[in-house]
Amino acid sequence: MPTSVVLFTADLRLHDHPPLRAALEGGHEVVPLFVRDSGIADPFRGAPNRLAFLDDCLRDLDAGLRRRGGRLVVRSGDVVEEVCKAVTEADADDVHMAADVSAYAHLRERRLRSALEAEGRRLHVHDTVTTAVAPGAVTPASSDHFAVFTPYYRQWSGRRLRDTLGAPRAVRVPAGVGSEELRSRSAAGVSPGLAEGGETLGRKRLAAWLRSGVAAYEDRHDDMAGDATSRLSPFLHFGTLSPVEVVHRVRRVGGPGAEAFVRQVAWRDFHRQVLAARTDAATADYRTKHDRWRSARTAREDVEAWRAGRTGYPVVDAAMRQLRHEGWMHNRARLLTASFLAKTLYVDWRIGARHFLDLLVDGDIANNQLNWQWVAGTGTDTRPNRVLNPLTQGKRHDPDGAYVRRWVPELADIEGGAVHEPWKLSGRDRSAAAGYPEPVVDLAEGLARFRRARGRE
Ligand code: FAD
Asked: Could you identify the atom of ligand 1 that is nearest to the CA of residue 363?
């Protein structure tokens, strides 16, 4: 019986899974393999929130395979060695896996291909598993990738997406291929409010979002207290949901909410096509001529205040505390906290990006690093000098202050929008907010420092 290994990476699902479908074609037996890869460097491997979510996803994937007569094979170690061992144990003909974009993913693919070819086996790498449109599928006339979102989106929108594939009815796994025990979710270092992972929950969340969330997305996505975004990001990050399927199903709902939402999913593909073409953008400024951030401040005390949610700017602090509590943050909150660190405090964006990656359950090398670069003005923003004012942002996107009160208990008794400027409080309100810190920086001074630094370039 012909046999294939399917290496699962950031695609931990059974629905709409081209590598699995291709492997099963012709009635093949399949080894569904996940490797806890010792080659993936911290902080991508060691973040407790993502590890806990990953354990949920693996258990759910195993349960889905068992319902179809199969099981998940889990190994730990060097990914190439473990795949080769599984190939030998199963006497498999070939290996199927999803394409991915980071420098590490490119290296993994090259190593795997040459190790397999040396044994007379083939590696099949499938596009549009972790993206809706493959990196490089749309390009401008003069470059291998788009550096600006709007023209990218125009072409992205015009592409016909492949059809969605259903989940397989049956998966037969050959005997004699050993697996580690699946782990239950570890609690060590995990945010208390962390969401649960897995394809089953991801599909339920998507269905609920299509029913009652997406229609209002255009109007409500920036309402920080309303929490009116999909929260699908961790499911997309771990690939328990397929971006192709998400786009098809959202488009079927239609309307301005659906359109605005699909545009955000296109941002995800946009950053991936940038990283695929410029893998060094994970750590180095994308616009090299502006590479002055190595000399930006490290400002230990300011960074600590930012990480702890004690900057004295309530909306910034609320967001940083939400991140610690949930391992997730609203997009508007990510924008304004990143701008505060990189521009108002003028700290190297890599320091902030690292903290996000330590905590975010959706922490993703393409989305995180390139969004940080976008905000810092070193990336693809066409207005790199804009600075988000945390007071204006707070008043606009949390006008009643409910988001701040939810996350900053020292300010829980301050009513209405006054919560955004605790230094203006007087009398009883002032004493109610007594435990809350003074601002770490004067906004006008921060802005002037950033502009001086820009002027020196
Ligand atoms: P929704 O608003 O419901 O959007 C739907 C989906 O579209 C998201 O799940 C996500 O996959 C995609 N998306 C939305 N906004 C963006 C965006 N700006 N860039 C790329 N994709 C987007 N997203 C991550 O998935 N991982 C990260 O590590 C990450 N780091 C970020 C760091 C900074 C500084 C900033 C400004 C943004 C970052 N984002 C990251 C993008 C965005 O904030 C999150 O995807 C979004 O908040 C997730 O919530 P949601 O699923 O409810 O989003």
From this structure: 28
Quote the distance between the C-alpha of residue 427 and its chain's center: 44
pLDDT digits (tens, 9 = 90+) for 85-144: 999 999 999 999 999 999 999 999 999 999 999 999 999 999 999 999 999 999 999 999
Model confidence band, residue 456 (pLDDT cutoffs 50, 70, 90): low
DSSP letter, residue 424: G
Bridge partners of 31, per DSSP, are 5
**What's the number of CA atoms in the CB half-sphere (13 Å) around residue 200?**
12
**Pocket (CB within 6 angstroms of ligand 1):** 221, 229-233, 236-237, 264-265, 267-268, 271, 331, 334-335, 338, 356, 360, 362-364, 367-368, 371-372, 375
* Nearest in space to 227 (alpha carbons), one of 349, 338, 318: 318
CA distances from 319 to 76, 224, 338 (A): 35, 9, 10
The rounded Å distance from CA 30 to ligand 1 centre is 34
233 CA distance to ligand 1 centroid (A)?
6
Give residue-wise pLDDT tens across range 20-70. Answer: 999 999 778 999 999 999 988 766 667 999 999 999 999 999 999 999 999
Residue 48 Cα to ligand 1 midpoint, Å, equals: 20
Task: Tell me the percentage of the chain whose pLDDT exceeds 90.
Answer: 90
pTM of the model: 0.97
Spacing, Cα 170 to ligand 1 middle (Å)? 34
- Give the number of the atom of ligand 1 that is nearest the alpha carbon of residue 232: 51
d(CA 419, CA 171): 56
Residue-wise pLDDT tens digits, 370-423: 999 999 999 999 999 999 999 999 999 999 999 999 999 999 999 999 999 999
Q: Tell me the three state secondary structure of residue 77.
A: strand
Place of tokens 């010792």: 38
Question: How many CB atoms within 10 Å of residue 99?
Answer: 22
ipTM over 0.95: yes
Per-residue pLDDT band for 454 (boundaries 50, 70, 90) equals confident
How far apart are alpha carbons 394 and 403 in whole angstroms?
Answer: 9
Token readout for 199 is 């394809």
Measuring CA to CA, how many Å separate 13 from each of 21, 77, 94, 163, 259?
12, 22, 20, 17, 25
269 within 8 A of 243, measured Cβ to Cβ: yes
Q: Exposed (0-12), middle (13-18) or buried (19+): which is 125, by Cβ within 10 Å? A: middle
Residue in the block written with tokens 């990218």: 152
Residue with CA nearest ligand 1 atom 14? 264
